[in-house]
Amino acid sequence: MNRAFLRRPAAVLARRAFRGARVRTIAFGYLFALYAYIQPVGYRHAYPTFSDRLAFARSFAGNDALRLFYGYPYDPLTVSGYSAWRVAGTLAILAAVFGLLAAVRALRGEEDSGRMELVLAGAVGRRTAYLSAMVAIAPGVLILWLAESVGFIVGGLPVGGSAYLALALLFLGVAGLAYAIVPRTSTGIAYGLLTVTFLWQLTGSLPGAPKWLVDLTPFAHVGLVPAQPLRAGAAVVMLAAAVSCSLAATWVFRRRDLTGQ
Amino acid sequence: MHPVIHTERLTKRYGSTLALEGLDLAVGDGEVYGYLGPNGSGKTTTIRLLLGLHRPSGGRAEVFGIDAWGDPVSAHRVAYVAGEPLLWPALTGAETFEFLARLHGGTDIAYRDLLVERFQIDTRKKIRALSKGNRQKVQLIAALATRAELLLLDEPTSGLDPLMEVAFRDCVKEAKERGQTVFLSLHILSEVEALCDRVGILREGKLVDEGTLAELRHLAAQTVEVTFTGRAPELPQLSGVRVGGAGPNALRFEVSGGVGPLIAVLARAGGDSIKTLTSREPSLEEIFLHHYDGSNGSDPRGADA
Asked: Could you give the CA distance from residue A6 to residue A4 in angstroms, rounded to a whole number?
């Protein structure tokens, strides 16, 4: 990357947004690493024998409330199955929250504070300002994946890919679009959507819920790391949706008054 | 040739509130234009429309002949100081300068260093540790150092102490000498008087008066104060003359047009008892207050005694 590129307003803005998000990114990365590490280690410690693990699996078999809360267990008899089930569910929602928070802070926070006005009064168009913020958040998602991988490796499991990082980008795009349309209520809308889609997936864990209904929520497609391979198709669809949301958002953002101070 | 700023029937409505109504404005190259009005009169709205931050509800705004809403990036020839110095709290002053300079491009670093010295600011401190006045200095220095062709300054001296206001005046004068155009939204009238070539007065979203200070003074009422050796005499009503009491032995008149008829009436009514008679042109403050005197918004120049 040459110096001229790094000096372009878009690159300058993206670097500022990335730096502004570093504390949050580090905190989430720490959480991802710790959670990915604790699950396999804790499982081995709590259920050292096969009979212990069988008893644990049976406790889930007849308990709808537990399944509703934790989701449908994938393979509670193995370390990787248990870890995948626990890690994927929790980190999926954390990843989505990360995407939401990142978008809210980088876009709405700047506009509410009045700083966006100063940026847009310089040689920067709205599309550049918007996309720079989005681009700045993407490396944060990569950092989360790396942190999670480190946690698994140290916990004695293989590294896996997961579509839930694409989920983070999806919610980043959704929150960004909500911001572009209705800045003042965008946070509520995005969190509402997150809650509904997550609860939807949990409800789908109950016996008798039709599969097509569950498939409507992106949480159903994140895959179980490291027990299952990456669901590349789902990841691509989520990424495409994220990109579409971002493109639509730049179009809408260009056509409304700036709010804030 | 296009003026630097040109608006035509520019209107902005926020829901049911009419913030700006039919503004026709033209600011020429190298001009320092003072834009006056109290809070809520539409000054900031005008600037946001000129920057393409808000979409006009009607009419159009052009900057350098380019539609401000259609192509706001043309504003790279513009530097802007917001009314509130809202900067990045985690950055130091120096980092803020660097960030804004990279964002805007074309910053004159040597001039920026000179301004830092002139405004006496410690650039090592984080923005969050600075007072409002010092944050305003950071914003001002960053904008002035761009040497942009057009400076849009919205209440740029808010929070500055009197010494720094003098430094600011020097900067605006330098900008004018360099041929930069300055659009200055202010409500400190002494600064407008000291700096501006032309003044526009805004009231409730409408431009109610505009011109050079000389033009505004010529059209506005001048003040005549008369003191008497005894009690002030009763005077007949005169067209274009408004009488105000200034004490038992004194009268103050605000005269639109010539003072001859007033002098003649005074001579007839009590010429021998006149002790002193002074006449002065109205200050900008008086011109400005005329437009806000009373609630009906009528033209004060037509006021009768």
From this structure: 5
Measured between beta carbons, the chain B residues lying within 8 angstroms of A124 are 73, 103
Residue A141's H or E segment, with its range, is helix A126-154
Q: Which residues contact A191 (CB under 8 A, 6 or more apart)?
A: A100
Residue A27's contacts (CB-CB under 8 Å, 6 or more residues apart) are none
Task: Please check the confidence at residue A109 and state whether its pLDDT lies above 50.
Answer: yes
Q: SS3 for A222?
A: coil
Q: Which residues of A touch B88 (CB under 8 A)?
A: 16, 20, 115
* A residues 14-73 closer than 8 Å to B (CB): 16, 20
Neighbour-count burial for A162-174, b at 16+ CB within 10 Å, e otherwise: bbbbbbbbbbbbb
Tokens 């007949």 locate to B236
- Cα separation values, A156 from A28, A42, A147, Å: 21, 12, 14
Residue type, A205: S
- For residue A31, give the nearest of A170, A190, A197, A147 by alpha carbon: A147
CB A107 within 8 A of CB A130: yes
CA distance B82 to B152: 9
Contact B59, B9 (CB under 8 A): yes
ipTM above threshold 0.85: no
| Contact: B104, A123; criterion CB under 8 Å | yes
> Which two structure tokens, joined as six digits, stand for B250?
């004194």
pLDDT tens digit string along A59-95?
776 677 766 666 666 777 888 888 877 777 788 888 8
Task: Please check the confidence at residue B75 and state whether its pLDDT lies above 60.
Answer: no
pLDDT tens profile B15-49: 889 999 999 999 999 999 999 888 888 999 999 99
- What is d(CA B182, CA B266) in angstroms, rounded to the nearest whole number? 45
Separation CA A139–CA A168 (nearest Å) = 12
> Worst-scoring range by mean pLDDT, A93-102, B93-102, B243-252?
B243-252
Whether residue A261 contacts residue A198, with contact meaning beta carbons closer than 8 Å, is answered with no
CA dist B127 and B109 (Å) reads 20
Q: Which residue of A has its CA nearest to B95?
A: A16
